[in-house]
Amino acid sequence: MTDPLVIAPILAALCAFVALGVTWLRLRRARQDFSEEVSSWKMKLDLDLRNARKERDQLLDALGDAFMLVDADARVLFANKAARTLFRGRDLTGRTVHEAFLDQRLAAALMRCLETGEATVTRAVLGQQSSPLGDQERRGMNAWVIDAARLSDSPAEDPTTRVVIRDVTSEYQTEQIRKDFVANASHELRTPLAIINGYLENLIDDDLVDDKELTRRFLKVMRKHTERISRIVEDMLVISRLESGEAAALKVKPFRLRSCVSDVLERLESVIHNQQATIKIDMPDVDITLAGDRFYWTQVLFNLVENALKQNPRKGLTVTVGCSRDETMTRIWVSDDGVGIPSADLPHIFRRFYRVEKHHSQEEIKGTGLGLSIVKRAIEAHGGTIRVTSIPGQDTRFTMEVPREAEARLQAEAEANALPELSGAGE
Ligand code: ATP
Ligand code: MG
């Protein structure tokens, strides 16, 4: 028989051992469960973080402007899609801004914000080569705005700086055109005004009014220059009307192109006669009817035929006015076999006040360089295009193309606008 005094402590020890084992197993299980839960939370957090970053990147990629985040050492932390495209697809992350920017003026604008912590907005006008677009830049002078600011008010907390790079080239070019226009217009108006002033001073200060013959001569010169001022002002108003509302500035009605050409030739009859010029009309269909503003079409053709005659005062010039039409397009051209336009000038001749200098002598008043500007804007207001080619001495040709669909649209718009008037008239 086993002594119970011996067995009891053994059993107690065994029970304690089993209880300890169970507790240990429970604890291990609990630890395992806990670490599994922690790692699943970690995975979930990682996923959330990745999704949040992806969402942020997608949002920032959707921005039209280039956007970058830069750290306190001027290293790029993030660059959105527009920034990567701007810098020709280069991976900017980790590079310093000095490496990223081709032009150090752009880098300097950003460094000012990094160094002082103050928000900066800087505009930089760059040449073709120093543009962020580098050799892809095709626009000549180009302009950029660098807008940099710290993300947080407390740099100790977050020293990251955000940078927005905005392409403002088209605004810059518009501003340049406006400045050129004002400068050119003032110059063109100042010249005849100074001449008129000079004659008036002569008449008044030198007391020449009693000399009737001389006064008459002076007044005639003054009238010529006054007419010139009126014409410049009138041309500028036409341009601004066409630019402001374009199609709205037109009074569209169907008209026969042939009759419009006849009007132009009638107005230029004496010049044609004096220069013994030949005018050819190349219009297989004499009944071609255009839907457009007859007034502007007359101005267009007048300017083009007048230019051909004016630039070629020599005898025996041939000027051709032509028109053809197919299902999609009406094509109208004016060509001459005169001196032509140098190829270097061709891209500029539709600009306001542009004249090919070597054609003109200083004393002679031959025009202001607004004619072709009006022509181009009038054609564009009709939904068409104009181009020019020139082989000096052979063929200088202005070709205008107006899609039939644009004509139909203008006609429909004109009819729709006319309706309220008609119903109003009937009331
Ligand atoms: P404006 O028409 O305002 O009286 P303009 O005739 O000098 O002045 P545009 O009609 O705009 O101005 O023409 C611009 C320039 O283009 C002209 O000065 C001329 O140098 C050149 N040009 C235009 N048409 C011809 C042409 N058919 N042959 C040669 N040069 C031309
Ligand atoms: Mg002209």
From TrEMBL:
Top-tier EC class: transferase
Keywords noted in UniProt: ATP-binding, Kinase, Membrane, Nucleotide-binding, Phosphoprotein, Transferase, Transmembrane, Transmembrane helix, Two-component regulatory system
Residue ranges crossing the lipid bilayer per the database entry: 6-25
CDD domains per UniProt: HATPase, HisKA
Enzyme Commission code: 2.7.13.3
Top-rank lineage group of the source organism: Bacteria
GO MF: ATP binding
rRNA processing recorded as keyword: no
Keyword set includes Membrane: yes
UniProt domain Histidine kinase: residue ranges: 184-406
Reaction catalysis annotation: ATP + protein L-histidine = ADP + protein N-phospho-L-histidine
The protein, known as: histidine kinase
